[in-house]
Fold:
Amino acid sequence: MTSVPMNVPEGADRCLVMGVVNVTPDSFSDGGRWFDEEAAIQHGLDLVREGADIVDVGGESTRPGAARVSLQEELTRILPVIRALDAEGVRVSVDTMRAEVARAAVEAGARLVNDVSGGLADPDMPRAVAATGVPYVVMHWRGHSHDMDSRAVYADVVTEVREELSKRVDLVLAEGVTEEQIVIDPGLGFAKNADHNWALLAGIPKLAELGYPLLVGASRKRFLGRLLAGPDGTPRPFSRSDDATLAVTALAAHAGAWCVRVHEVGPNADAVRVAAAWKRAGANT
Structure:
């Protein structure tokens, strides 16, 4: 299959870091701090300076309960940001569930399509991505934000997610996407509760056996805030779960993740380098 499905820094022998730019007014993680076009562009450039290998630009919130935005609104939010970042040489991915947005984003300079629905939200998506030839993140997904929590029912979450991802990849391949384009994502927090998320993180080696690069997106998600809840049971705020994200990043990188998607890039860029050094040392003993 493949080892690294897009151009990466020369000599990179570590897990990559994808920084997040939410061009939305209602993101769970940053409360719309980057909704302004100029602020979003500057934030993307700052993430690269902090060590991001890829900058993931999205114009539609996928937080639990979020309502969808119109096609035109999504395009208006993200295309100027993608064009500006590409002009600065930034490796941009587009976070979208719409084929038309994916096509326009690639034309604007995006080099990867990150589809949280794995092609289920828009049946035209796999064909659109196949035509572009860019890498395609196929995430495990069972439904839109408004009802995904009700779908978090598993007997064996690692086995079921692995099987559902495998079937989804087969369907995407049948639409013309090549094996070399595919990245998989277990979809932490998407139709998963906290126990499911932890099981999937521990199961990274089993998921990696599918043979595709693995993207892990744990940053600032609810299960981390709940793990770090105060004595009264109040979950830790999203913005104060970055240290826990660092721990997940280091462990995921050591377990074989191809890339981690994070909000706070600098410390996570350090964490993947620590994990790489640890693995190298282990290989030499």
User: Anything to note?
Assistant: The mean pLDDT is 90. The chain has ten helices and eight strands. The longest helix spans residues 265-283.
